């Protein structure tokens, strides 16, 4: 039971986005054949109805919003940036180069301990083993053709 | 009952060695997010071509059963299903691991997987021909209702708000319509992104929605990834066996559900585990505990998905129709070995088939010690690895796993973007599970609905086609019961608060 109910503003905002997406999906289905449009249209309508119902409920009966995340927003943002850059540069630059760069960046972002030379060496060795091991398993054992791109 | 000679033929040192190697290889591959049981079999199948047919099949069966079980490790310890079959294992497995019971969850998953595998193999041994006929009774309408039954699970996956769960489910179903329509051939919501012609890949979406948000949140604080409330000294086998014994009805029911769903071509382990989870929750004394680290949830899903191994072999061997994608690959291996599947297979090539089935029993039993040892090692590793190593290593696996599905860079991009969307949606109170459920079941629901409508239309009764077939009516009844049961129990609880 929520002891301090208030309006779920993030939930309402999210529902508004889903309503917009639902309307766009319904409108986008106008060129589909009758058979191809019935399911997406039904789902779009359902999404709009549920989202509208949620907004009405949240306005009439205040409930607890989703818990706000604790911790560093900068580190979170940095992880997102690294993952997106990794995914989009993988094919152009190459698997090995992007993976070494992304692995190093994520290691630095996730580390909260004070850096020491010993720690740096251990992490470098572990990183090389993980990267090398996974590369060997996927490339040599599983015969997955990993992207080579401009560098490797 | 087929004779003891086949059992003895399965128990040769060579076959035992193959079964051990197959279970170990399958478990390791299945544990890696993105690498499915189908991929494990496809990669290792060439090694079996030089073997005697029964031995080759035993090796493949062992890889298959190990891979399905292996998917539970990352589901429990990283909140990322190693294979799509383990999606429902995340619902209670990860909360258990978060509260410090990850080792118990892994042991429970192992016991349940063995139990499910044995039940599926028993059905395969004793009831293959009549059950294959049951599979043929399933038409598009039944598949549609089966998908709806799975979607009814949204009610139990909606943390906090049913409406938010329904919105997420509808969004997942809508995402599932992107790309080339299975019926009619329309190209939907693709725009200029030709990479979306094949739609959103379920495995890439699974990895993205479950794993990327965990990675994003892992780095935010210096707290350890998983709690450890005790010294990891044993397998907690006695405790797990005691829980499994108390939940034996759940185990048997889920195993039977898994076998029956496995028999249905195209349904597979993910639907089996979702349906059995839904049933376990429905009949539970306190359904509210599901999703918060309830051992019964793990027992239901893991027994069901491993039961699909034996179940899936039934239509594969009796009808030549693969029950699951992995069975389709094994069917190809059977043809290479010169084995012609069909109703007479059990009579004409009984030596090979029954030896293989006993070999499947052998591999499943071997999974208990092997699974426990690997599971304990996996748990200790995940608990002890510093975040600075865990985060980039898991990120590497997500990138490799989503790429290796189709050797496609665009699927890696899809995975990351869906993952970031999943994290943002969770901040707005929309959890990933209903979206994933919609995405997985959307295609089955749509093709079942459209094909059923066309068949009904040809008969002049498009609507009644959906409500007059006996199996459909049975599934509808279960769906309604599943939706109404929590309301009934809540009402009962309100009337007699002393039961709390």
Q: Approximately what portion of the residues of chain B adopt beta-strand conformation? A: under 5%
User: Numbering strands along the chain, what is their spatial order in the largest sheet of chain B?
Assistant: 1-2
Largest sheet of chain B: 2 strands, antiparallel
Largest interface: A-B, 78 and 68 residues
- Overall average pLDDT of chain A: 88
State the separation between the terminal residues of chain B, measured CA to CA.
Answer: 49 Å
Detailed description of the structure:
The complex is a heterodimer of chains A (152) and B (500). Chain A is 72% helix and 0% strand. Chain A has 152 residues and is mainly alpha-helical. Chain A folds into two domains: 9-60; 73-141, no CATH class. The longest helix of chain A is centred in the first third of the chain and has 27 residues, at 34-60. Chain A is flat. Chain A starts with 8 loop residues before the first helix and ends in an 11-residue tail after the last helix. The mean pLDDT of chain A is 88. With 500 residues, chain B is mainly alpha-helical. Chain B has one domain (4-489). Chain B has helices at residues 4-10, 13-31, 37-44, 53-78, 89-98, 102-136, 140-151, 154-157, 162-175, 202-218, 237-246, 248-263, 268-283, 295-318, 325-336, 345-348, 350-384, 387-404, 409-427, 432-458, 470-495, and strands at 179-180, 187-188. A two-stranded antiparallel sheet of chain B has the order 1-2. The longest helix of chain B has 35 residues, at 102-136. The relative contact order of chain B is 0.19. The mean pLDDT of chain B is 84. The interface between A and B is large, with 78 and 68 residues.
